[in-house]
Amino acid sequence: MRKVVIGDRTIVVTHVETKTTEFGEIQRFRIEASGSKAVTHLSSLRPSTEVDARVLASVVDTELLLDYTGSSESGLLSDIGIRRWRDTHRQLIEDALERLREEALALAPVPTSDVERSLLRAFGVPDNDPGSRAPESSDPSHTWRVRS
User: Fold this and answer.
1) Domain count along the chain
2) DSSP bridge pairs for 111
3) Is 42 part of a structural domain of the chain?
4) 57 lies in which domain range?
5) Which member of 12, 75, 128, 134 has the greatest number of CB atoms within 10 A?
């Protein structure tokens, strides 16, 4: 579990499940925000169960900033209080996202299999190193979100 505090809210991300598929391991994370009953999940094709800066950046970006329909229907933004808080604290959220992305760049590359690299290419993610996915290609926008 890991938390990120933004303004007067705390976003809590917890690893809840690993699913092994023919494409690799899919990690499922539970996402909660203080002061809200809204709960959602995020899934990511990655071998590690650790809630690191890559995962937190994905959460902040997909659940708070990108205005995905799924987030407003069944994610954190389904709570009108979270939407109002987001609108009021957008700059703080963007600052937190920038710090998380900087932290993610300092992390070691994530090894990927041939199948994972094929999937990444299919989704338009650059393959910087044939043996690993460099932090730059672990952009949070390339995390697949699963509705709650």
Assistant:
1) 1
2) 132
3) yes
4) 2-101
5) 75
Cβ within 8 Å of residue 111, ≥6 positions away: 47, 131, 132, 133
Q: Which residues touch 4 (CB under 8 Å, ≥6 apart)?
A: 10, 11, 13, 56, 59, 60, 96, 100
**Strands (E) located in 7-144:** 9-21, 24-33, 39-45, 110-111, 132-133
Return the residue matching tokens 């890991």: 2
Q: Is the whole-model pTM more than 0.85?
A: no
67: left (phi over 0), alpha (psi -120 to 50) or beta: left
Residues 2, 15: contact at Cβ < 8 Å?
Answer: no
pLDDT over 50 (residue 131): no
Higher pLDDT, 68 or 41: 41
With beta carbons less than 8 A apart as the criterion, state whether 142 and 45 touch. Answer: no
Residue 69 inside a domain? The answer is: yes
Minimum mean pLDDT among 34-38, 117-121, 128-132: which range? 128-132
pLDDT (0 to 100) of residue 121: 80
- Cα(68)–Cα(83) distance, integer angstroms: 12
